Amino acid sequence: MDARALTQAAHRALPPLEGEVRVPGLRRPVEVLRDGWGVPHVYAEDQDDLWFAQGFLAASERLFQLDVGARLATGRLSELFGDLTLPLDRFIRTVGWARIGRRLAGGWDERSRRMAAAFSAGQRAWLPAMPAPPPEYAVLDVDPSLPSPGEADAVAAAMSVFVAWSLSRGWDTDLLRAEVGERLGLDAVRALFPGVDPEPYPVTAGGEHPGRLELLDGAWLPPSGQGSNAWVVAGARSATGMPLLANDPHLATQLPAAWYEVHLVAPGIDVAGVSFPFSPGVIIGHNQRIAWGFTNVEGDTQDLYAERLSPDGTKARHGDTWEPLTVHREEIPVRGRAEPEVLEVAQTRHGPLLDSYTIGIASPQVVEGGITHPYALRWTGQDHGVQPSVILDLDTASDWASFRAALSRWDCPGQNAVYADVDGHIGYQLTGRYPVRHGWDGTMPAPGWDPAYEWDGWIPFEDLPRAFDPPQGFLVTANNRPHDDAYPHLIGKEFLPPFRARRIAQLLAERPTHDRDGFAGIQMDTVSLSVPQVLPGLLSVQPESEDHKTALAMLEAWDGDLAGDSAAAALYQVWCARLAREVLLPHLGEELFTHAYARRQWSNGFLHRALPGLLAFPVAPWWEGAPARDAAVLRALDAALDELAQRFGDRPWRWGGIHRATFASQLAVVPYCAELFTAGSVDMGGDDQTVLQALFEPGVPYSVAVLPSWRQVLDPSDWDASRSVLTLGQSGNPVSPHFKDQLPLWSEGRLHPLPFTRTAVDAATLHRLDIRPG
Question: If residue 520 lies in a helix (H) or strand (E), which one and from where to where?
Answer without folding.
Answer: helix 516-522
